[in-house]
Specification:
- The protein is 13% helix and 41% strand.
- By secondary structure, it is mainly β.
- It has a 4-stranded antiparallel beta sheet, with no helix packed on it. It has a 4-stranded antiparallel beta sheet with strand order 4-5-6-7, with no helix packed on it.
- The longest helix has 20 residues, at 2-21.
- The radius of gyration is 24 Å and the shape is globular.
């Protein structure tokens, strides 16, 4: 009798264990459209930094169908602050929608780069100091000191950027600096930043192409969290870096005999591609897109007429409004008006309309753009 009871109990426990293993995923039976309707009720920052990484399906839906038309900016004072503003810009059928919130960062410094959930911050007063901050876990760590011949990351002798290598699942801090020729070093770390201060910098070959910026350097424009591009004030090429291959190269600029490339151009990331806005005349700007990085293949996306009243109202003489970012739909470009009466404007490439965005920005504030294509961890 006891033997039978024990056997029955073991079978019952085995059945319960089997049921636990076979837990029903209620979301798995939902159609994509229904699941998207549910997920869209969550705040954008929760979707971007937490919910998206639940599983492959959620990552794909949130990235490609919910956050596809989103862009994010951090606005901070030029001298750095613990409190910064996060501006989320999304596209809907009526235009652009803005959401603004304050972020508290437990470190006073200037944000230099933003890749996925990590911020790379430099200290204005402690020479050569870099701080990495995880926006999801709200944790940070100092990085080991790098070469200080650049002058401390706040002058014009170096450029730093944060990238992600999805093939190895690691982040890379790139530091390009003068010493006296252009040099470069890398710091590689995984998602866990607790042991970052014990890592060591690795020297790599710096770029041979320096254009007219041979005596100073700058922070790069980041594309896809992988490719870095530096405007070196040259009419023929950019200096680019594939941070996965850890290799610099010369990227030829577009242009023609009719509209030769001059130094009146600006770079901006647009929908996962590098874009270039070239002022070819007093009333015309050509928008180019680097469609093939390996072959330096550019395609002209559109020509913008700048003689309209709306555009000219933010066009101070010959100074081109600075492109800041673009929503992934590649329809709206966000510009910043230079000068004392600064402001953010959106240009609709489809309807050719320029509008001022309803957000206050001071002349001393900086815009830090999040790289648009987040890395996949699956």
């Amino acid at each position: 009798m006891k033997t039978g009871t024990k056997r029955s109990r073991k079978e019952s426990e085995a059945e319960q264990a089997s049921r636990k293993k076979k837990k029903v995923d209620c979301f798995a039976s939902l159609h994509d459209d229904l699941l998207i309707d549910i997920l869209q009720k969550l705040p954008a920052d929760i979707l971007r930094y937490k919910t998206r990484f639940v599983c492959k399906r959620w990552f794909s839906l949130i990235t490609n169908r919910i956050l596809f038309d989103h862009a994010s900016l951090i606005l901070e004072t030029s001298y750095g602050s613990r409190t910064v503003r996060l501006l989320d810009i999304s596209e809907d059928k009526h235009g652009l929608t803005l959401k603004e919130q304050n972020l508290e960062i437990p470190y006073t410094g200037r944000i230099k780069s933003w890749c996925n959930e990590f911020l790379l911050i430099t200290d204005l007063y402690k020479e050569g100091s870099l701080f990495i901050y995880d926006m999801i876990r709200k944790q940070g760590s100092f990085l080991p000191p790098c070469s200080t011949s650049c002058g401390g990351h706040y002058g014009c002798k170096c450029g730093v950027g944060l990238s992600y290598d999805k093939f190895k699942g690691v982040y890379k801090v790139v530091h390009a600096f003068l010493g006296p020729q252009i040099q470069c070093e890398l710091l590689i770390f995984k998602g866990d930043i607790a042991s970052c201060n014990s890592l060591k910098w690795k020297k790599i070959s710096g770029p041979y192409y320096t254009g007219q910026r041979r005596y100073y350097w700058d922070d790069p424009v980041s594309v896809q969290g992988r490719y870095f591009h530096w405007d070196v004030h040259c009419s023929k090429y950019l200096v680019s870096m594939d941070t996965v291959k850890e290799r610099f190269r010369q990227t030829c600029l577009p242009g023609s005999d009719v509209f030769p490339m001059n130094k009146r151009y600006s770079l901006v990331e647009m929908g996962g591609f590098l874009s270039l806005l070239h002022k070819v005349s007093e009333d015309k700007i050509n928008v180019w897109m680097l469609k093939d990085y390996q072959r330096s293949k550019w395609e002209i996306l559109q020509s913008i007429n700048v003689s309209s009243h709306v555009w000219s109202s933010i066009y101070p003489g010959r100074v081109l409004p600075l492109p800041v970012t673009c929503v992934k739909g590649k329809r709206y470009i966000v510009f910043r008006k230079p000068g004392s009466e600064t402001g953010l404007y959106s240009y609709d490439l489809e309807n050719k309309i320029m509008r001022r965005l309803d957000v206050n920005i001071a002349p001393a504030e900086r815009c830090v753009v999040r790289t648009t294509e987040a890395a996949s961890f699956f």
